[in-house]
Amino acid sequence: MDFTLSEEQLMIQQAARDFARNELLPGVIERDDAQKFPFELVQKMGELGFMGMMVNEKYNGSGLDTLSYVLAMEELSKVDASASVMVSVNNSLVCWGLQTFGTEAQKAKYLSRLSTGEIIGAFCLSEPEAGSDATSQKTTAIDKGDHYILNGTKNWITNGGSAEVFLVIAQTHIEKGHKGINALIVEKGMEGFEVGPKENKLGIRGSDTHSLIFNDVKVPKENRIGEDGFGFKFAMKTLAGGRIGIAAQALGIAAGAYELALKYSKERKTFGTEIANHQAIAFKLADMHTKIQAARNLVYQAACEKDAGKDYTLSGAMAKLYASEVAMETTIEAVQIHGGNGFVKDYHVERLMRDAKITQIYEGTSEIQKIVISRSVLKD
Ligand code: CAA
Questions:
Q1: Atom of ligand 1 nearest to the CA of 232
Q2: If you measure from the C-alpha of residue 134 to the centroid of ligand 1, how many angstroms do you get, rounded to a whole number?
Q3: Residue 214: what are its φ and ψ, rounded to 5°?
Q4: Are residues 147 and 220 in contact, defined by beta-carbon separation less than 8 angstroms?
Q5: Does residue 372's CB lie within 6 angstroms of at least one atom of ligand 1?
Q6: In the structure, what pLDDT confidence band is assigned to residue 2 with cuts at 50, 70 and 90?
Q7: What is the DSSP code (8-state) at residue 90?
Q8: Nearest CA to ligand 1 atom 47
Q9: What is the pTM (predicted TM-score) of this model?
């Protein structure tokens, strides 16, 4: 595959790099500490076109391809993975899901605002007892003619506290199993909809993760996405693309930690020379560089397959599985190279190490990716 980047793709990559350095780096440690992310930063990312990258210009999006999106995700994630998860969920789950499967009315009402960063969205599949086992939805959406009555609890919802629009997966026809599940658009402020307390997390602490409680929430039928019973397929198809975004996030975290370790190893001296001159350190850098490049190839391949209209379920799962492993390994080694300095916040690598862990968990754990990959391999 030829991954030569176009002029436009190089410009997007540079714009994301500049934004990360100039706007995200200042205050990133404090935001992690305080578990806060000012909404003005989301709006700034929206102004630069990062919140609706693959959305058609008709709905105020940037009209770009998936490769451009992963380039931006990598650059943002090098500096602030809390920012990039907000970007990823809004782009690949909420905006892509609405653009691909929503009605014209839903697109006009929600997508046009989500793609500019005026508002942000959340994707609500996980439940206290339905994480990996996603068909076991306990949240119910009972059909009442022209509306649904929604009851249940969702867990670990990214953007849970800041979102205005929530794509909620719920069971309507229990007897039909996953074929009875629907996806509904729920708005903040609907009666009976409550946002639970913010989770106190290991990593991506700037991003807000909440449980959501639905208590007899009346959702108009026009807010259903797709046909009756399409909700589980909607979630799976949307997550297949989401996994490319998270793979790009993992790649960025790894690359960010590597760049910091490389720089540090040329500055820090031990035994009378820069530590990069010790083979123990140089070999670590060699391993990191090789694995990051391999992860990048997988991520770009998945993005290019999506752009070419091919089935990207397998390549997206492989990219996420591998890039998230590389993110974890690389960030641990980056901390090791930094020694004692790696263990304190000012050098950024400890945060990247904490942030890396979630990429092996959300949008399908590594074990779920292996289910997807092995089923595909065995089918052939
Ligand atoms: N595209 C289209 N349809 C798909 C699909 C895909 N990629 N994957 C599965 N399906 C369909 C199947 O074809 C099947 O439909 P039919 O019966 O009509 O053929 C249906 O979905 C059920 O599939 P399975 O029988 O394979 O279901 P399963 O119970 O064995 O589970 C699974 C499959 C892949 C393990 C799935 O449950 C899964 O992906 N689990 C992980 C869920 C997940 O990623 N959660 C992340 C939460 S979201 C998040 O993290 C967002 C955030 O905030 C960051």
A1: 21
A2: 7
A3: -115, 120
A4: yes
A5: yes
A6: confident
A7: I
A8: 363
A9: 0.97
